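name: query_chain
kind: protein
chains: 1
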Amino acid sequence: MAGNVDEKRYQIISLLYIVFICFSVISIKISLLDSNIYTIRSLDGIQLEELKKVEISNKIIQDNITLLEKSEKAKSYLKISNHLEDSSKVIDSLLLYINDQFEEEETSILKQFNSKNLITKTLSKENGIKVLQKNLFNLDSIIQSSKHNLDSLPTSLRENIPIIKTVKTIKSKEESWEDYLFLKKPTAISYMQLIRIKLLITKSRLIHQEAALKEIGYLPTYFSPFNPKLYVLKSEVKIYEEEEILKPDQKAVNIDDVVLDDFFKNLLNGLNTENIYVGIQVKLINNKNKILGDNVKVEVIPRVEIKPTDSTIDAVFMNEGKYLIRFIDKRNSSNTILFEKRFQANNLPDPSVKLSGYLAGNYEISKDDLLKVDRLQPNLEINNLNFFPGRLNQFVIHRISNGVEEESFRNYGEVFQPQTQSILGNVSKNDIIIFDQIRINLLDKTTRQISPLIYKVNN
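structure:
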């Protein structure tokens, strides 16, 4: 009898031990959840840095919106960026909603960090995770249906969030999207997922903005006023466009690929397809003889006039748009394409104008200094250009005294005509001189109207 009691007691103890082991396995150590606070802080820090870049991109986009709207690809990227901004606002609203709900319960995110009940209850409400889910799935549909998007595997929101109704776990168990990421999980995990998704949205927004700006020649750079050299930031993520995919008869390489062949090494070092501006002669190839020899033919499509010199191949692009430079092997009748690359020719940026010989930038000037000036001087500093690529066509000068316009004259050309010189000779202290309606014709066949110059006569 005693033997039966001991056996049953042993079975009960063994069962309790097994239950204890199971609970030990399925429970999550509080210290592991607490450590998520550092992950959240790190993601928040990265988020702030990315937003600084977004703000800079926004400013450049606003300043160049007319030019950007001429590019279908740029317009598509900016449209996606706007939807991404809306999604970021939805996440911000959800985070604020969670904090408000926790305050109503007289608690906080940190106090509930290891608990899953309140966060699950909050996210399950109508204003909770359903709102974000609807927004993100709608965002995915917009991105995937866009003709031009950058949702490649390394940056794909669909893959990295992920955005899929039913998610398969590592153990091949299927869970709904909201359960897999957010519900029935400690606050530490659910809240961190929201911060992580917010960062992914911001990063994708920045990628699309930078891609749009790249269409008009803008690239992220490091710049120093003490060093004229610009250091271009190249993305680690390579987005292959349709025109960059090799065709069956094409032995081509991309500019970022590691190429072992000496020809391609030399070609990539000598090829210049960056900062191409309409109307300005550019050196497409340096060290021509060393790189090309007599066996390689160069074509540019659409066709432009190519001007070979002893050591370079120069060209002038007369129209804005995309071009293709192609290098063809002439050694056999098949004219094998060795290498081709697409690039953009852009209209010239807006020039600036100043009073010739007057360097001060505080917009106050003495009458003596004003009388020494004989012209308006247009400037455009690109590609080490040693001349101005255009002509200042006309401007209107106004003299304002005591708030009343006393004189004005339309001056043709940049040199001051006698009537302009006469107006300058009549100025008195506290008069305002305005150079307005400054029109400049550039070599890219465009006409620009420059912002007015305004000076106050201080003595």
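note: The first helix runs from residue 2 to 26.
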